[in-house]
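Might you be able to review the protein record set out just below?
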Amino acid sequence: MNSTLSLNRKDFAQLIVDRIVQDKDRIKKQYDVSKNQIGYFFIDDLLPPELTTYINSQFPSKDEMVLKKSIKEHKHIAVQMNQYAPVLEELIYAFQDERIVKLIKDICSIEDLHPDADLYAGGLSSMEQHQFLNPHLDNSHDKERNNWRVLN
């Protein structure tokens, strides 16, 4: 597992890019069919199992996270990334990589799509059996309120 300990956001991003490219046609079709409601797609096995097992072992305990429970959600969240294992911060920032954003722009046909380098209103979520986050349109914005989140 020593090689996992040295993975950084660029390494994670490359793994994610490779997986998206592998399944891009299916993902695009799934998004296109749903986009007139709340567009979505999902990717099983986004990262290799041994890596997800390691990441899971580094997740904060439920005691270290905040429980959000309402009619729209029942989950645990963690937002202050520097308080948790470095691998989690590297992974979450990997999703902001321009290569991933470019692929998502193409899949969702959204020309004006930008990563959020500040992760404003972003962080980690953890859900166990019977916990949930209802589908919703996000109303989050960047910290300057110049850009609005269109994908979650």
Observations:
- The helical segments are 2-5, 9-22, 24-34, 49-58, 86-94, 98-108.
